[in-house]
């Protein structure tokens, strides 16, 4: 069982030569994250054993460490670590960037270190090694008082994103006292091959999602790929046409957008589309609504992009209009900016009330509108952000006298085990982005990691978790995620 450390962090190895520092570092960290005084001595001298190059190597080590910390990169300092002033300096560098600083204390018995030293082709002189043992004894006495965030022995460790730090404990809690949580699959990329291949791939993925136990499938409502996920010219099918196709491919999952930009369509027309989807899917439609944010998309298609206050007025009118439109008769509706003389929609939806999910985490206006008119509010962000949004939504709900669910959207990457996760991260990460940063951006973790994270989100008040799988090009990731879903049934 591995100890979890937050990403990014600074890890200082402390102990005499031959105590196992380099072996431990190489076992648990990529070579690019380890700054080794021996390797730097080889770079500035005639080899790792060129003692005359030690001063230059340590000077270079300081430069490399400071540059890595400035870039907030996890760094393992593999040197003796017996100089108190250097340790203090490294802690201060980490503090300036808000990075935890952890010491790994190598309490390897002196006799074992001597035995290892004798087996080396180039041994450290006995007197030099004895001096290190004396220095280590003095260091060990004061190490706990120096201000490291944690002092660990050389056990297995994993550096993980903050949301995964307590995942192991949360997963155990889920096993003992299961909580319920629904899961929705969010389709944001369509890397399934061009042309006719897309239809077959979408059907396969939709069927696999339903088999895996997903509660819903959501499409991202845009007309070109957004810059956060890809390039403008990537294949990106229209959302409601796609949902209509998925209605014919599935039997149980709910279907909707997450979320429809309020500026993209005449609102009454949008209501008619959602009602038709509900009828043809046998009562499975969900209506997602959001403020719309992608200005470039509006300009590219020749649409007006109203100001934020104008869009909020339109969103509030839509939230009031749609239930009227889906009801009986042909009632007139007049809002702040919408005027619909006959809010009529036949056939009417099969559901008595189509759930409206309000997307966005704005605490003063968006969450207030969700509390007043929505069935749910969908937010993004890390665990602490979700906890704060839940509190704010709860306050708005108390004032409105209503109960509204909280849902959460995030990108995830799930691997069978730690090694598989690392392989996926290395394969999928952009060329200019490091593995650790990419892993955090896509919440890369094992099945057990995700069970724990999902439990923490459920405890924070989330009732449905919408996930965008970072490697969804075939059903395989869905099969792995099915194990997460099974833990919450």
The total strand number stands at 19
Termini separation comes to 26 Å
Taking all residues together, what is the mean pLDDT? 94
Percent in strands: 15-25%
Radius of gyration: 28 Å
The poorly predicted ranges are none
Biggest sheet, spatial arrangement of strands? 8-9-10-12-15-16-17-19
Silhouette? elongated
Total DSSP helices: 18
> Major sheet: size, sense and barrel closure?
8 strands, parallel, barrel
Structural class: alpha/beta
Helical percent range? 40-55%
Write up what this structure looks like:
The protein is of the alpha/beta class and 489 residues long. The protein is 45% helix and 18% strand. The chain contains 18 helices and 19 strands. The protein has helices at residues 21-28, 37-44, 54-70, 84-96, 110-119, 126-143, 167-176, 197-212, 239-249, 267-280, 295-301, 308-326, 366-373, 383-400, 418-428, 435-441, 447-459, 476-486; strands at 3-6, 10-14, 34-36, 75-78, 101-105, 150-152, 157-160, 182-187, 216-219, 254-257, 260-261, 285-290, 331-334, 339-343, 356-359, 376-379, 405-415, 444-446, 462-469. It has an 8-stranded parallel barrel with strand order 8-9-10-12-15-16-17-19, surrounded by 8 helices. Helix 17 (447-459) crosses helix 18 (476-486). The chain is elongated, with a radius of gyration of 28 Å. It starts with a strand and ends with a helix. The model has no long low-confidence stretch (mean pLDDT 94).
């Amino acid at each position: 069982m591995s100890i979890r450390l937050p990403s990014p962090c600074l890890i200082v190895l402390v102990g005499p030569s031959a105590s196992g520092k380099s072996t431990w570092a190489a076992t648990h960290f990529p070579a690019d994250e380890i700054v080794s005084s021996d390797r730097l001595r080889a770079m500035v001298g005639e080899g790792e054993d060129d003692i005359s190059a030690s001063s230059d190597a340590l000077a270079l080590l300081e430069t490399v460490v400071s540059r890595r910390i400035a870039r907030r990169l996890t760094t393992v300092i593999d040197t003796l670590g017996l100089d108190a002033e250097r340790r203090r300096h490294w802690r201060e560098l980490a503090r300036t960037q808000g990075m935890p600083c952890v010491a790994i204390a190598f309490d390897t018995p002196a006799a074992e270190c001597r035995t290892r030293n004798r087996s080396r082709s180039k041994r450290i002189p006995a007197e030099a090694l004895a001096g290190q043992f004396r220095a280590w004894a003095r260091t060990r006495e004061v190490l706990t008082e120096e201000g490291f965030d944690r002092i660990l022995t050389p056990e297995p460790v994993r550096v993980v994103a903050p949301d995964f730090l307590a995942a192991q404990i949360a997963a155990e809690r889920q096993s003992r006292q299961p909580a319920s949580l629904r899961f929705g699959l969010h389709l944001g990329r369509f890397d399934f091959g061009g042309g006719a291949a897309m239809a077959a791939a979408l059907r396969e993925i939709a069927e696999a999602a339903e088999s895996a136990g997903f509660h819903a499938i959501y499409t991202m409502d845009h007309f070109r790929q957004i810059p956060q996920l890809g390039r403008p010219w990537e294949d990106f099918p229209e959302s409601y046409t796609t949902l209509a196709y998925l209605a014919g491919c599935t039997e149980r999952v709910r279907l909707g957008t997450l979320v429809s930009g309020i500026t993209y369509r005449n609102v009454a027309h949008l209501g008619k589309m959602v009602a038709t989807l509900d009828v043809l899917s046998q009562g499975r439609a969900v209506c997602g609504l959001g403020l719309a944010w992608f200005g470039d998309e509006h300009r590219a298609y020749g649409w007006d992009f109203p100001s934020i206050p104008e869009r909020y007025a339109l969103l509030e009118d839509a939230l009031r209009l749609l239930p009227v439109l889906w009801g009986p008769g042909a009632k007139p509706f007049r809002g702040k900016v919408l005027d619909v003389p006959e809010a009529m929609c036949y056939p009417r939806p099969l559901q008595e009330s189509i759930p409206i999910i309000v997307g966005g985490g704005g605490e003063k206006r968006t969450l207030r509108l969700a509390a007043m008119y929505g069935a749910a509010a969908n937010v993004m962000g890390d665990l602490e952000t979700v906890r704060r949004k839940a509190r704010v939504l709860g306050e708005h709900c108390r004032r409105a006298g209503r109960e509204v669910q909280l849902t959460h959207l995030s990108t995830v990457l799930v691997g069978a085990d730690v090694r598989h996760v690392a392989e996926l991260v290395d394969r999928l990460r952009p060329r200019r982005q490091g593995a650790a940063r990419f892993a955090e951006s896509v919440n890369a973790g094992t099945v057990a990691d995700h069970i724990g994270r999902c439990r923490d989100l459920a405890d924070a008040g989330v009732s449905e978790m919408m996930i965008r799988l970072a490697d969804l090009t075939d059903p395989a990731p869905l099969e792995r995620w099915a194990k997460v879903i099974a833990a919450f049934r």
